[in-house]
């Protein structure tokens, strides 16, 4: 498969849904990726089946608060700097890039890096969605070391981290991102082809493209209708009544109140945010939570509204999609379930929560 | 010259005075250095005249707030980690250690590193005293690049900084030190023998030993008498009336009020602190300021009281010694003069300030 001017918009649309409101807006990321493939040619997406066992794969993502990326758009050379530094660190050539998370702009950055380095992108990622913290990644779940890690800012400053576990990396690399102005890009949890076949969420890139194609097929009804075959559930339709969002400790944190409209009149729903949408609550009841994918759509256009774009008065439809199976296991939930974000409730799959609500209404 | 069980106590005493209240208390540093030379043999101090032109010198210091070091005493292996990482980074063997600053515990850490790595210490440093920030160093004044820099914590976590100037390094490495728990150790501004002969404060280690010997010679009168031939001036003798000191942004910051006693009765003097003692003020008048060396002595014992040890009720004698000539130049003052610390006054040498006060009194 190729990512080019035709497929990239689908990929970006799928990545937007999978971002759970995070990973950074795909708007500027899509523009940067389109420009890169126009200038340098399409990016090849390779199946992990075709990657040699010992080939070096570089998972990459931004680190910081997506709010910052509205003004700080990065530098296309960052991919070259990251690749060169990782090759120097490991003493062997890189084979391919991987999106650390297939959600939001973090799905598109590796496309820019790939175009600028002439390397392909593997059809996989580390989350099957987006999560806010470094250790919330499939490679961590499978024992792949977090370091060596390379971090660069947009000016060309380089930092290499060694001999650190994922939690220490999260703590220290996040602090460094704040010192660099709130955002930087990294390669961490690098791995070889053989390991990647078990330690990643496979098929993520082609899945995102497919989701984008389905969402763009107007013959399938409106956006909500198109999401249904993907397992999508509508949580509420309403108007944003309040946005509490601050950039704190290298994250966008806060919550959003949605006032129900039409059939949802008299409902008041709260979305909890840490870069991504973490949970939706109504009168103390959980409507959906991590690891399921919670996304706010513009009720008129069906476009994803990223957390950094939420504003008072927007008409929104909150939808939830089931998490990849990996995150619904005991080990997965320990890493990315509600309690990993300090919420005092257990995870219940969104489809079960929806069925319960229907029962109680009828 | 050798640093051994005989000379180390003198060296520590000189380093304490030159620390300007900062660089960390020499008490625990002296114990660590004594233990290292007892276990591993004395450390050789080599003149820069005897260092080959292309020999690699590693300047080292702690980075963080000295308050933290009261509880976080470090790990003797840190020197081995720093040396190994710098050798890997530069692809050549290290020849010797250098104290980035000859003041406080930072004068003694390199002795521990030297003993544990079997390398000598050069008779020089980067300040001729102690300063709080990374760029406040003679190598920066002489155009030596700040990076590559290696930073390690006491657990063995490694971070390498590349392609950064001294101000960016100060900002980002400081943030990282805070994330590591408030203190870490670094090698930065590494240089070769030829460069060191012009870009350092030469003879610092032997000077500190000599100062320690003079201060320990009871035949020369009390501590104040012994400081006089070194250019020392007494600013005030009093009792600490108030200590405002917080650990903020990776520094110990605050001020201390000293209430005059005996001949200084009815005087109230304020000491401004950022790790080191920066300035002494009395009713809006400057008594002494950076780059001159301001040190608080215990009025009874003559021992240095480091900023992290200042407490209400202590009897103190504030003394000031002239700064090394390098810092009294225009370029030197731009880097470490009062305005570099955001004070709105120009530097006047302490001996001139003392002469003016004597005149106005008589």
From TrEMBL, chains A, B:
Residues 9-162 form the S-Me-THD N-terminal domain. The lineage of its organism: Bacteria, Bacillati, Actinomycetota, Actinomycetes, Streptosporangiales. This is DUF917 domain-containing protein. Transmembrane segments: none annotated. Residues 165-350 form the S-Me-THD-like C-terminal domain. Pfam families: S-Me-THD_C, S-Me-THD_N. Gene3D superfamilies: CV3147-like, CV3147-like domain. It comes from the Bacteria.
